[in-house]
Amino acid sequence: MPLPPLLAGQVCAVTGGLTGIGRAIALSFLSHGAKVAVNYLASHNKDEQRLLDSLREDAVAAIKSRDQSSIISAEDLPLLMVPGDISQPETATDFVSQIVSAFGRLDTFVSNAGICKFEEFLAIKPDSFQRHLQTNLSGAFYTVQAAAQQMVSQSPQGGSIIGISSISALVGGAEQCHYTPTKAGVHSLMQSTAAALGKYNIRCNSLLPGTIRTQLNEEDLKDGSEKKAYMEKRIPLGLGKPEDMAGPAVWLAQPELSNYVSGAQILVDGGAYVNFQ
Q: Which keywords label this protein (predicted)?
């Protein structure tokens, strides 16, 4: 039996919600009764239109999976899809403005959008470092700030802000020297915003995914690769799926379940961090 809807009436937003972890979280929010806004980088995916269409189709299926009596169609979905590059400050304010225009308010915000290109440290070019910094950390700052400003305007209602950090915030990665600092920064941002925004009843927390199979690492983790075999042996629960991140996000979005949780880091890594064998 599926759980009853836990986010009925909520308005939730996810950056980078067209693929991977962001998509899985957005679909789970929809299935739990929320109205959802998704940001995505236009023309970033070669099959963008197919992804947009399939997101609508999957959203209908997600809602019906929890409510078999639902007769919702793709045209009637409580789903807003907004293109924009989060590395640009104006994207954040535009995204939040469109959310409020469509749904009236904002209850939960997930800063998820990010990039990761594996590169040898000595060969990393300044433009690659800046691209990771601007997307992963600056983009998180801009969007979280815009979301918080809207939530404060709704005071005393409050809200939940979730930063998708990474296990890489806690451990090194030889080919991730331009990536791991940005993910540590996302968690640090959530700690500081938790301190800054608590007086407005806004909770800020980090989710730290481990090795989740997404479009970012599909080449590294393809079947038969040495890395895939190593990670499967290394992680007690095996490789993760984007859907594994959805439950913790729903929990942090639901105030009755996580009302006193703020400034926390939640590892969602299948036990990888504690397994040193």
A: NADP, Oxidoreductase, Rhamnose metabolism
> CB neighbours of 273 closer than 8 A, spacing ≥ 6?
167, 170, 171, 210, 267
Residue 183 annotated among the catalytic residues of the structure? yes
Please, which residues have CB within 8 angstroms of residue 217's CB and are 6 or more apart in sequence?
116, 211
- Residue 260 bears catalytic tag: no
Domains in the chain with CATH codes: 11-268 (3.40.50.720)
Catalytically annotated residue among 87, 179, 258, 262: 179
Spot the catalytic one: 40, 168, 183, 258: 183
Q: What is the pTM of this model?
A: 0.94
Rounded-to-integer distance, Cα 145 and Cα 147, Å: 5
* Predicted confidence pLDDT, tens digits, the chain (277 residues): 667 899 999 999 999 999 999 999 999 999 999 999 999 999 777 789 999 999 999 999 999 887 766 667 777 899 999 999 999 999 999 999 999 999 999 999 999 999 999 999 999 999 999 999 999 999 999 999 999 999 999 989 999 999 999 999 999 899 999 999 999 999 999 999 999 999 999 999 999 999 998 766 666 666 766 667 777 788 999 999 999 999 999 999 999 999 999 999 999 999 999 986 5
